[in-house]
Amino acid sequence: MMNKLLLTTVLSVGLCLPAIAAQVQPGETLAENQEYTYWLLDAIKSMDPQINTDVEGSGILRALFEGLYNEDQNGGLVPGVATDHELSDDKTVYTFHLRDNAKWSNGDPVTAQDFVYAWKRLADPKTASEYAWYMELMQVKNASKIIAGEAPVDDLGVKAVDDHTFEVTIEAPLPYFPKMLTHASTFPVNQKAIEQFGDKWTEPGNLVGNGAYLLKEHILGEKVVMEPNPAYWDNEHTILTKVTALTINDENAALTRYLAGELDRTQIPAGQYPRLKQEYPDQAISVPQSCSYIYMFNVDKEKGPAALQDVRVRKALSYAIDRDIIVNNILQGGQAPSYNWTHAATEGFKLPEIDYAKWTQEERTAKAKELLAEAGYGPDNPLKITLNYNTSEAHKKIAIAVQQFWKGVGVDLTLNNMEWKVHTDKMQNQDFEVARYAWCGDYNEASTYLDLFTSYSGHNNGKFFSERYDELMKQSKTAADPNPMYTEAEQILAEEMPMAPIYQYTKVEMIKPDMRGLGLNNLMQNWYLKDMYRVAN
Amino acid sequence: MFSFVVKRLAVAVPTLLLLIVISFLLMHAAPGGPFTQERALPPQVLANLEAKYGLDQPLWRQLVTYVWGIVAHFDFGPSFIYKDRTVNEIIAQGFPVTLTYGSVSFVVAVIVGITLGVAAAIRHNSWLDYLAVGISIGAQVLPNFVMAPLLLLTFTWWLGWLPGGGWEDGQWQYMVMPVIALSTSYMASIARLTRASMLEVLTSNHIRTARAKGLPERQVILRHALKPALLPVMSYLGPAFVAMITGSVVVDFFFSTGGIGRAFVDSALNRDYAVMLGITILVGALTILFNLVVDVLYGWIDPKIRY
Lengths: 537, 307
Hints:
Chain A is an alpha+beta fold. Chain A is 28% helix and 21% strand.
């Protein structure tokens, strides 16, 4: 007996509106010019959904391809190729119903087989995808074994029941599984095109997609040009007629070009938001973004410094950081000071009570001095410690500020600037004492953060270990309401302090005032070109 | 002359090979690899990637395979980072761009630089001299990473005359700022070198003789002074030309020209081994080639030099 489960958002949006595409509001008149040009920091590394690894590439992939579900303006799920799904009683079999009018840009229908092909391709060791682990994260049956080469690819828990029914079996119940389906690595790909063109299938002209846009040009390090895809099932609601993404490696140069009218959207470099907000109040925006910035402590028993084994020292270091100065005087882009790990705006997440968040900075600093003295450090025996951070103007400024804060409590901090790959390599080998780190959520649910500090996480570089914490995170996967577990987990982090939280990200950008449908309230900052349009002023 | 050229080319092969081996080893000695990222890859995923790109092989075998690929198929391998592209494609896309704006910059730098230098020397200690020296020092001390944003602010934002970046198949509007940014410091060096060496030549005996026999000043300068004065400049021009046509990170960085300079720095930071080696070999080969060209030109300009 299948339990018919329709996502509420799917229902409401699906029934009241003819399409999920651009929703022009009453009273708005469309502008004549519907071209849109936006900024990319870097060249796009790959246009292959199963190969791409970066956020900028995903933005483009969401235009060229369409997965089972899309996100609406607030990040809620809305139908994509799938109209809805059913979940089995034991919560491990998802059956997706695919719309019958979805088409590839070459005219072929998009079928369940295309999803089966793409998902197997992602897990297949032969593809060697850097995102193969996403299949493991989704707990798709046998994914881990396939990636390890211990089972044939055909054992993956995916099945095309018929052309328009796609069935996925997962290893254990996973409440946020549907949310994970908007990730680009789960998008379908066209087997025919891949087999015909091999590695060249992503070139303009060869690329066959099922998204609202077609790839017209892709010049590495210069630009990507896209135009509407007439074969897209909802093409009649696509409004932007031409979209250009320009690679500009320098954000200040990008800002100059925005101000000269060459770009419709660009990032604001650190520290410039207040000035721009004053000069262009209708264009400078700052909205929450799902990333968290921390200083990770190495608490590894063998490789970590002895001083950091002492929880009093870790707490003292965290307390001594004046986060308000960092966000208000250095970053100045509306970022939130942070005393916990999970981004506060994460859907369904209730910010737990963290004791030191409510203290004044004077209280925190006093407590820090007290704790350090208890741990045996003082003016005669100052704590000496090093911080690793990768090259970036903002990281450097924060590091210098922290050096001053810590000096105030008698800690002698040495700053160790290193190139990105070296920094990462050292972190992953526990070759550090304190290290700058940031994590961005993969999906809009607290476990994307909290799982990181489990002992079995591959990203727990400081090697923090708490049995209770692991237990809580395991329990949360099957709980009807995981929030009590999340709260306790966050409190363990505040009590054990395996890292010092510093701030939570915002997206700080300049956007032309006539742009609509950008999905700025979507915490994941996943926007869809098909939803965007320009209004007449 | 012919045997000299052949000899030099013969030496070039082991030189390049040495360059490959050293770059290869240095690159692999740097911490981190192409797949090192903030979120560590699970060991199995990493193993699959390394197997696909042959990084699981011993270093010497990787090196042999790589060199063999170049010798046998002129194949520089796949990019580890831009996975839709091969190194050959990345170079084929970026190098023509760099070659174009680099050559134009070179011509501009040479013409303006030599003119300034000669003018300054023949009007020694006049206002013209001071002006030329002033310009060249100004151009030298203003690094291009300062100049590039200034150009952008002036021509794109303030005056609105020029597009702020891109290449668009090398239309002239897109080339103006890159060329100015790239050529000024070279122009300044050329001007100062030309001026110094011209001043020296102008006091030499053969010039006095030429003037004494009543040759018009124009002929003295162009026929008798300029050629020897350019010798030291020539030896500067060879490496300068290679440096200009193999790209400027700053130009690519600020003007999104999509040239090879940015690709080179990117590849080093990303540990994109194959791209980095490919561009290193290109730059190495061009350096050897243009040093040879300069040496041959030397022989042509200065008949005293014989090979």
